[in-house]
Amino acid sequence: MDPQQKLLLQCSYRALEDAGIPMEKASGTKTGVYIGLMNKDFELNRVNLPPNEISHWTGSGLAVSIASNRISYTFNLTGPSFTIDCACSSSLVALHLACQGIRQGDCDMALCGGVNCIIEPGIFISLSKAKMISPDGTSKAFSNRADGYGRGEGCGIVLLKPLKRALQDSDHIWGVISKTAVNQDGHSVSPITKPSMIQQEELLRRVYSTEHDLTRVQYIEAHGTGTPVGDPIEASSISNVIAKARPPGSEPLIIGSVKSNIGHTESAAGVAGLIKVLLMMKHETIVPSVFYSEESASIDAGALNIRIPTKVEKWQSSDPAGRVAGINNFGFGGTNAHAVIKQYKNPVVAIDGDREFQYFVLSAASEKSLTMMIEEIIDEVNKDSAESFESLSYTSACRRSHSKHKYRKAFLTSSLTNLKEQLQSALSKNIKPSKLDISLVFVFCGNGLTYRGMCRQLLKQEPIFRQKVEEIETLLQSYRNVTILDKLENDSDEDGDSSRPDIVQPLLFAVQVGIFSLFQHWGIRPDAVLGHSIGEVAAAHCSGLLSLEDAVKVIHYRSALQSKVTGGKMLVVSNMAVSQVLKLLSPYPEKICLAAFNSPQSCTLSGDADAIDKLQETLSNVEGSDALFLRTLDVSSAFHSHRMNPILSQVENSIGRLQQRDTNTELYSTVSGAAVSDGDFCSGKYWAQNIREPVLFESAVRAAAEGKRNVVFVEIGPRRALQRNIIETLGESPDSSNGVCAQYCESYFCTKTVPVVEMNNEGDTNCQLSVIPLKPEAHKLFHKDAVYIVTGGLTGLGFETVRFIAKRGGGNIIILSRRSPTPGMEQEIEAVQKECGAVIDALQCDVSVTEQVQKAIDTIKHTFPIKGVFHSAVVLHDGILEKLDRSLYEKVMKPKVSGALSLHHATKHCNLDYFVCYSSVASFTGNASQSNYAAANSFLDRFCHYRRHLGLAAQSINWGALNVGLLLNKDHLQKFLETRGLMLLQPNEIEQSLQDCLLLNKPQQLICKFNFKNLRRNTSQNASLGLRLASLVKEKVGDSTEPDTATEHPHQSPSEYVRTVLSETLDVKPEELTEGTQLSTLGIDSMLAMTLQNQFSKGRGVTVPLVKFLDPNSTVGTLFKALNQHL
């Protein structure tokens, strides 16, 4: 595909996005596409393709017509769509035609602009031979150094819309096109490529036909390509028609050319000039044209009454209508275009800033795109000129495309600062794709959930909600004197009516219908609805079956008549099979009824108070009663029981027949437990059944979910009540997102998309989120039906990781190692397999060799999906810089660096939960004798940040000293490390730390156990280390210092002291250590060198450089001198 087509698609998307028009809103509209395109470099480059490289998409990929048509196709735009080629005036001619198309009704909006890409040299050669191209590649507009134009590349797209409609839609407007015009040179000049002053002047006279036009224009964006012929002609035509024709005393007309700044973008030149003018208007600034000065001008600007700025200046304007500019655009074949642009100042729109919380939403087609978007928003928020919090929230929700995006993130936040914190936190977490083909079911809750002051925020902040509540209140007042708004806005319960059905049921109905109306206003419509008990009234209306008037009639008579019945109790029984509960009811005939089947494990009982009390006592003493949940409901009477019998005929007769209307969504009955049947909800008889018969909620939920994919239940009501029942009914388990409600219980809507969406309208900060406690589900780190790869997994930390994964549920573990496991290691692997039930295989593979890694991954992924990589491979070769050559750096770095890169490329298309690189504290603290090892680990640290930036799983763990592998039971090394401030982590601490790291999921984490007193001494002697750790040490042990005086051998001379320390550390007789004894002959390696360095530091307060110990020319006498120098 021609790259110009890709640029046009990208810029079209950005133009729509800048306009705040979501793709879903633009789709299907009568939007035209007018594109200027003249160069076909890509086609010329492909003209001699061999037949076997020509495919079925070659034609569309090269066709000029497809450049515009592909935009229409991609965004589903149905207006005119064509590509225009009139050379360098193409994009402004496209603008002219787009304006005409809108005026005559061909389209309602238009995308127009131009594009230019330079791909092959043919056009360059042709233009060079025509003397049109500047040898140095720059356009020196209006300069006597002008020698042709410099070619430029780029793409520009603008979106056009009638001003009246743009204002109606509250669009952001950059400017207003006042006039456009196009003409042709004809044969007025020769050759064809020469510009015609006659036709340029004729075009400008058509545009600036009145004195008003001449006086208002303040700036002309000239075509100004930098040719010695064209520039003077254009300047003269502008002067003759505009500058000199203005009233005496007028300021010189300012002109300029963007081509001196960005080059001549040919078919995109007109739109480039337009965008420059719009930006100058926005910033009220005129920018200079480079390469121009009065001394080097090719025109007499004073005589022409024009001025070309040479520096940035304020665009002054005394015209109340604002700034006005004209734009010239000429084609080398003689087609000329001009447009007049007026500034538009967008009014500052007051946005409701009273909300304590706002939702900020983001979505993208990929996880990487969403991550980049989050990073971009963070950068925007950091700017001093950042938009207001309310504006950002509005734009994110209403002016961005979301419907086709799988990756979504919502933030409930109260300020820009809080938003920034949440955005930064989100960067460290994996974002899972959302399901776009969901089926939405609204569940309207029943009695017992209202409370004083509920929904005050909604009443205050959402006019749609308030208007609906007011409408319901007005309708209800035709039956009785009731003030719903007062009840909702008043915190006190002076009348003691919080449990009266004739009060709470109308309140609940009003709240539910108000919330539904608000959702409708936001464009959220359910696929199905159902109600629990009283919730059926709102469900019937919101499905479209009942009018609001009829629903209010039902709620009035239902609640008023139920208020006449008092006495009895209702008891919720949960965590016990309903079938088992029913067996316990036989001793209570005609005294206790089953009021509601809520789920297989939950029901509501209703009946006489004494019978309910006895049954509750019985339930409290049954086996397993500790797990039961028993709760007496705060209701005035025993609904859905025999106690409703006295009012059934009154309910039936009072409500009578109701008008049945067509439903606009599926409706399910909790009286029948099935989809609505003819006559349901539309008679007094049905509503009598509604208050007497058991609520078949479980059956209705199953029916609503049957045959639907990705069902999402949204509970509509003041409080969450039915989530647990829905989960139990559909056999799903809650996830850890329940905590969101606790954090934001002041917010009305707290949602989670899988498996259940919760609606929570709680205004009481002390509210309990669920009356039934749910046992939290432990986070599962690994899966049985997945593969986890561990490199270097046959030794040390690598095998500890294998054991760790197996113990925590990982079903399949592959160890990648250069060597086969030893017999002893095979036994250990077998023991872990037996203990944990995992399958563990070792595969020979050198991870530093890309081909071997790719082959291994290809083999592995045909078994189970690969879900994790733990890169533990390591090779050590210590030594000071002078002792390490390139080969020793490669030896140490290859397993880590090449290994990480190979694993990255081989698994980047796998949906990994983990990509864990085992780094070292050495990359954090540094180590003079391990520069190669520190460098390798530093790479792993940065590489994990890089993968996170790509939206991939990654975390680097900088491990400290571990009692595994090389350090296992090495007392002398352990003591040495402790003197340096490093304590060893034991295997159980390693496991816990690793688990914490995986759960915390940060890009880089340091796991190290410190002896802070020793570490303080070490940081005081090591400036580099001090920079990294001093603040940590100070936090732990304060500012106190310990004297660095000798505690051992205090009276020895330096030479005696050196011999004693060497003798004790290296097991060498003191008399064998002469002044000339070379240290290299004593077997001092990097670890021993650090031990000795620490001994001298503790004993004499002298830090001898490690180089002194490891230098092949150093002797015992070298150490004498080092100590003597500090006496």
From TrEMBL:
SUPFAM superfamilies (UniProt xref): ACP-like, FabD/lysophospholipase-like, NAD(P)-binding Rossmann-fold domains, Probable ACP-binding domain of malonyl-CoA ACP transacylase, Thiolase-like
Record-linked SMART domains: PKS_AT, PKS_KR, PKS_KS
Catalytic activity: holo-[ACP] + malonyl-CoA = malonyl-[ACP] + CoA
Pathway listed: Lipid metabolism; fatty acid biosynthesis
A Pfam family this chain is assigned to: KR
Any one Gene Ontology BP term: monocarboxylic acid metabolic process
Molecular function per GO: [acyl-carrier-protein] S-malonyltransferase activity
Gene3D superfamilies given in the database record: 1.10.1240.100, 3.40.47.10, ACP-like (1.10.1200.10), Malonyl-Coenzyme A Acyl Carrier Protein, domain 2 (3.40.366.10), NAD(P)-binding Rossmann-like Domain (3.40.50.720)
Top-level taxon in the UniProt lineage: Eukaryota
Full protein name: Carrier domain-containing protein
UniProt domain Ketosynthase family 3 (KS3): residue ranges: 1-343
PROSITE patterns: CARRIER, KS3_1, KS3_2
Domain (Carrier) ranges: 1052-1127
Keywords assigned: Phosphopantetheine, Phosphoprotein, Transferase
